[in-house]
Amino acid sequence: MTEVTIAGVPFEVPAGTTLQQLCDTHSTPVVFGCRAAQCGACVIRVTSGKEHLSPPGDDEMNVLDVLGVDLDHRLACQCTVFGDVSLEVAE
User: Fold this and answer.
1) What is the distance between the alpha carbons of residues 78 and 54, in angstroms, rounded to a whole number?
2) Vertex 33, ends 89 and 77: CA angle to 5°?
3) How confident is the model at residue 91 (pLDDT cuts 50, 70, 90)?
4) Which residue in 17, 28, 85, 91 has its CB near the most CB atoms, within 10 A?
5) How buried is residue 75: exposed, middle or buried, by Cβ count under 10 Å (0-12/13-18/19+)?
């Protein structure tokens, strides 16, 4: 099992779980819009464990670039978790 901490609340999930699946199953503060790396509604900041997330694809990188955020930010709709990670909801 892998521990994903979102805004201080830990969740145990199997490795290979998407953040979208986790957030659909549990009550979290992550808000989703399009769920397809287009709108930027689900921007999160990775506070630890960035190396345990799937790498960002071109679509995600384009949206993050448009939003002007640094590389500690990701779109939750595009992340798969492979190890322990801590996240905050971006403002």
Assistant:
1) 8
2) 60
3) confident
4) 85
5) buried
Per-residue pLDDT at 49: 98
Residue 6: exposure state from Cβ atoms within 10 A (0-12, 13-18, ≥19): buried
In three-state secondary structure terms, 10 is: strand
| The model scores a pTM over 0.90 | yes
**pLDDT at res. 13:** 97
Exposure of 71 by Cβ count < 10 A (0-12 exposed, 13-18 middle, 19+ buried)? exposed
What pLDDT score was predicted for residue 60? 97
Tokens of 65: 């670039």
Q: What is the mean pLDDT of residues 2-22?
A: 98
Which two tokens mark 28?
């979290």
Q: How far apart are CA 39 and CA 9, in angstroms?
A: 25
